[in-house]
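Summary for the funding panel

The consortium committed to producing paired sequence-structure records for every protein in the target list. Below we show the first two records in order, beginning with the earlier of the two.
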Amino acid sequence: MKADIFKTYWGWMGVAATERGVSAVVLPKTSRRAVEQALNEAGCTDRSLQGIAVKSAENHVKAARVAIEGYLAGTTRTFALSLDFGPQPRFRQKVLNLLQRIPYGRVRSYGWIARKLGNPSAMRAVGGACGANPVPLLVPCHRVVAADGSLGGFSGGLNIKKRLLQLENPGVKAPSRRAHREGARPGAPGEGGCPGKSARLGGRGAGGCNGGVFTGK
């Protein structure tokens, strides 16, 4: 295991990796010590690796740092990184895999994820999987919101989640609590509003379906 702590204009962040891929991301915090504590609590302190494993882990850490810095600067929209989730329950693994397919700037609901996985009643389990995501940003659990368009939960705090969504949609504000149009991107055409129709958050979708915006409530 190799780890790195670095400062961004969002705050202090951390990444850790094994020889197989990035295994942890610590979201912005106010101090280096807070990031160190988060890495320690996640068991992501440097461990002795030998030979090629050392170089591989270091490369994963460096690549993750570059990718995260680019993302926060608005210049990186997709990630091509090896990830190491470690042992995960099967359902959680499926959620993490599906989250990686949510496009930049789009949002999905917890219910949408559950239905895609063939278990419509598993919304709480989806939320739990999102909360346990070891590599937020790289696996974009911040793009999962509540069915009514509110932010839901986020391990990094709702203020960070709101900032991330606004980073991906800089022209969109979140002033109210309105109906969420699943599969849509705030302020742009969606992929799955009303069945067979395109919808737009913040407006009215084709066929007279009401759109909505994500909110901070």
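The next record, for a separate protein in the list, is shown here:
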Amino acid sequence: MADDPRWAGSEPRLVEVIRDEIAAAPERRITFARFMQLALTEPGLGYYAVSDLRPTRSGDFLSAPELHPFFGRCIGRFVAAVRDAEVHPAAAPSVAGEPLTFRVREFGGGRGTLRDTALVGLDFDLEWTRVDLPERSDVPTGPADLVIANEYLDALPIHRVVRRDGVLREAYVGWTDGWFDEILAEPSTPALAAHLAADGVELRDGQRADICLAAPAWLTEVAATLAPGGIILVIDYGHDAAELYGPRRMAGSLLTYREHRVTDDPLRAVGHTDITAHVDITALERAAGASGLALVGATTHAEFLGRLGLGELRPTWAAIPRPSRRPTSMRGAPLADCSTRGTWAPSASWLGHSRLSTGPCRCSPVSPTHRRLRACASSWPVSG
């Protein structure tokens, strides 16, 4: 093992844990979803379990909160806008005559960068709770007024499938000749084919796809914890199913990040590499509707941050120190330059949901999705 570069570049004890689980499995294989879960969150060994410095310039990737504090400032404005919306209970006096505490629940909060920068300038009673990946923390059951998931869903475990000779096969992880390998076999659950069918998707022969059953399950669970008038805001790589599983993505959407380099081989550098896949927006919208939520809107980073006043903050941009070198890889879009609309990846940021009866959306439900968010954003008060 000492002379094998595959072992040397990985966390050896984690490799042993996964290898032993494969050996103990009835068919000597595990789903990729289980492999990803262990690789990222195994206590004391997984990628997210051993360091909080992953999303830094000296780590493996950057996300928007680490790139510049103005992202957090804009999120703070969004928090204030939701709280101050006329229909939101937390904006009205309680029975005792005092404002209610506004409760924010952030999934995937990491080092707390987003929370710390978002709280700047907010002067109302606010409780901000950070929640880690499922294997690393319990999901609070109390009501939340605003749920934020910033680049969280793309880290949830995925199943990998491929269509061969007209038949859907699942890609499992096995152990051969001293290392992990891929084994194609019958799907581990009929939910995978059902997921694609519900999305209206039929894979082309030879096409691979990455299916996250955990993401819509997460939304269903979180929706049950929303307070009346509550909002769920998801910011992530994401596409409608027709694009995510379309002909441009014959190899799926899985990527890995290490030392600001991007690859597509998750069976290397195990425990030292981040693993992500793009989010199926269609599946989330379906889960949201089944949970009694109404779509507020979907947009890009540029549009979202622009509507929250990023352009107003730009005159003070140079006053905040930033490293001069841009990293080579980012798990998300750069902060939007509001003067160059339409140049940013459409998968960077999207989606808000509100309870059907009490959400702050003040526009026609038959409007196009992107216009619905514009109407909502422009109608909310924006605080500094």
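Regarding this second record: Confidence is low (pLDDT under 50) at residues 323-330, 332-384. The chain has 13 helices and 16 strands.
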